[in-house]
């Protein structure tokens, strides 16, 4: 792309890179202080595309350059050489504008492990629960575990399917308890997911947090702003270079630059700016500002195994939407009631289970199910012509670790994404047990009347080795990458940020997004990312007040 000019955009107290879930929260909270100026940079456009707001519209947002970065992974050995599409939101609201809308916190132990890992009790479950509640507007009102009146709307889904009710009964017959809430710190059981919707319309982070902030004079939001690199003076980050159209701009930050570009783009921007493994950067001709070996490492994701079953005697979306009159009915139902299939999150029924209840080392559920009243060969292809359901099961705490790294100093070149799925014996064992558990649920008495017939991956796969191969055939991302700029202590060679999310060894730079997770949460990752941003905004505002107090004391003593 031709460079025609370089312009100074201005000077702000804070610059936030990325207007995804975390960036929207930060923009809102930081501009609550009227004397603080904030610049929010987003590479994508506005969230004014109508399919963002219709829940089923994720089908038209994922894989669409208007809303998605269109990344792909490298060929994955664990997936039998397949490369996957790797959707990431490229629009105001980020992934909250294209994701499955599932409200999920994870398990108590996830956060207690973070606290132990960082040595900071402020990341424990008891410490983060009030942070979750503060921004929550739960359909059930305020309670011990939920908040009311916050920005982040949480509602029940607005539809039921007989096949899903029956799957729930079958799961209970297999030993899973029924639950009406996955967000109390123990998500064991089977039940319907709560969703981030408002009256049947997607409730993304842009609506929840950014639109209010954009009415304030101290927030400047620029879309179509592709960050090229961070600007440093010595070891202090003092600004951001970004491109808008054919023009390169520089914006300066008086206090801090905050990277909220996500688990793929945050490590990419760091490496482009000279922060990462020094030897790797030097090979690319990039001057090293901070030698941090952990940048881009520790990538974790939930690999989902999509098992599909043909059924008889019960209607699913496959046949309901097969004819024009069915599509007309679905459209009218949504137009009149904001309910029905067009209000569907991608997955409606959930379940959390242990992959091997006889394994004493598995102390809490390590599998999550996303169950859907539909089936297809792969995402983006037509639904099957027969009635069927899909039971996608993912490993919640994978032991495999991957990476995200730049391949060139070109800021517009996609990074190399290598999740390294199923690269450990433990993950292959859990995957095989997950497939077996799904088969036990499908064989339970409740589902027998519909004669479920496994079509993916197919009953030919039986042994541990065969099931690991089957997992490689059908496994795909469920869009939860985390961990590529993980938290840790100053003496941890793999850590990128400390427990206050400051980049280790540098000044004026924080990272606030899912990349800072030391370990992936046991569930969907969007709302944990929101919580991280809420916690970070507290830290940033507290640090600013401390600086102001110290300056006042110094002035008084002068």
Automatic annotation (TrEMBL):
InterPro entries to which the protein is assigned, alphabetical: FAD/NAD-bd_sf (IPR036188), GMC_OxRdtase (IPR012132), GMC_OxRdtase_N (IPR000172), GMC_OxRtase_C (IPR007867)
UniProt keywords, alphabetically: FAD, Flavoprotein
GO molecular function terms noted in the UniProt entry: flavin adenine dinucleotide binding; oxidoreductase activity, acting on CH-OH group of donors
Superkingdom of source: Bacteria
Cofactor(s) needed for function: FAD
Residue stretches making up the Glucose-methanol-choline oxidoreductase N-terminal domain: 262-276
Cited Gene3D superfamilies: FAD/NAD(P)-binding domain, Glucose Oxidase, domain 3
Binding site for FAD: 91
Family that this chain belongs to: Belongs to the GMC oxidoreductase family.
Family annotation (PANTHER family): CHOLINE DEHYDROGENASE, MITOCHONDRIAL, GLUCOSE-METHANOL-CHOLINE GMC OXIDOREDUCTASE
Official protein name in the record: GMC oxidoreductase
Organism: Caballeronia humi
């Amino acid at each position: 792309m031709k460079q025609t000019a370089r312009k100074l955009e201005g000077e702000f107290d804070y610059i936030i890179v990325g207007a995804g879930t975390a960036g929207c929260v930060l923009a809102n909270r930081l501009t609550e202080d009227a004397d603080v100026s904030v610049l929010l940079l987003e590479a994508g456009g506005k969230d004014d595309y109508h399919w963002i707001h219709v829940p089923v519209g994720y089908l038209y947002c994922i894989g669409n350059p208007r809303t998605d970065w269109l990344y792909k992974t490298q060929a994955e050995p664990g997936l039998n050489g397949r490369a996957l599409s790797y959707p990431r939101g490229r629009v105001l609201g980020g992934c909250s504008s294209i994701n499955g809308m599932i409200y999920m916190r994870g398990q108590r132990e996830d956060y207690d492990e973070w606290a132990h890992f960082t040595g900071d009790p402020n990341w424990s479950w008891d410490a983060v629960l009030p942070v979750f509640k503060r921004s929550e507007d739960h359909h059930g009102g305020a309670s011990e575990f939920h908040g009311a009146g916050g920005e982040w709307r949480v509602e029940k889904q607005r539809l039921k399917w007989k096949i899903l009710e029956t799957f729930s009964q079958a799961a209970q017959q297999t030993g899973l308890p029924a639950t009406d809430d996955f967000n109390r710190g123990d998500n064991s059981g089977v039940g319907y997911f709560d969703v981030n919707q408002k009256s049947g319309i997607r409730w993304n982070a842009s609506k929840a947090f950014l639109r209010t902030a954009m009415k304030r004079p101290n927030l400047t939001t620029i879309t179509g702003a592709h960050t090229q690199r961070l600007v440093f003076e010595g070891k202090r980050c003092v600004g951001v270079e970004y491109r808008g159209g054919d023009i390169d701009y520089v914006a300066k930050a008086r206090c801090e630059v905050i990277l909220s570009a996500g688990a793929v783009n945050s490590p990419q921007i760091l490496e482009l700016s000279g922060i990462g493994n020094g030897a790797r950067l030097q090979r690319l001709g990039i001057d090293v500002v901070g030698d941090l070996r952990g940048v881009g490492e520790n990538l974790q994701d939930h690999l989902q195994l999509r098992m599909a079953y043909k059924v008889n005697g019960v209607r699913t979306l496959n046949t309901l939407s097969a004819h024009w009159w069915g599509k007309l009915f679905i459209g009218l139902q949504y137009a009149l009631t904001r309910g029905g299939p067009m209000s569907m999150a991608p997955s409606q029924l959930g379940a959390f289970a242990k992959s091997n209840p006889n394994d004493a080392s598995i102390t809490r559920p390590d599998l999550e199910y996303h169950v859907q009243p539909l089936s297809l060969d792969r995402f983006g292809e037509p639904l099957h012509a027969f009635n069927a359901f899909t039971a996608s099961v993912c490993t919640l705490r994978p032991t495999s670790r991957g990476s995200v790294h730049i391949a060139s100093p070109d800021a517009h070149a996609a990074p190399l994404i290598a999740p390294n799925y199923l690269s450990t014996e433990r993950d292959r064992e859990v995957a095989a047990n997950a497939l077996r558990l799904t088969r036990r649920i499908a064989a339970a008495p409740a589902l027998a009347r519909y004669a479920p017939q496994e079509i993916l991956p197919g009953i030919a796969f039986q042994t541990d080795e065969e099931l690991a191969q089957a997992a490689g055939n059908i496994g795909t991302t469920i869009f939860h990458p985390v961990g590529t700029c993980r938290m840790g202590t100053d003496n941890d060679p793999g850590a990128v940020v400390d427990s206050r999310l400051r980049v280790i060894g540098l000044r004026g730079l924080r990272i606030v997004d899912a990349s800072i997770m030391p370990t992936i949460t046991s569930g969907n990752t969007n709302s944990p990312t929101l919580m991280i941003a809420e916690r970070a905004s507290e830290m940033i505002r507290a640090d600013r007040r401390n600086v102001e107090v110290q300056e006042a004391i110094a002035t008084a003593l002068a």
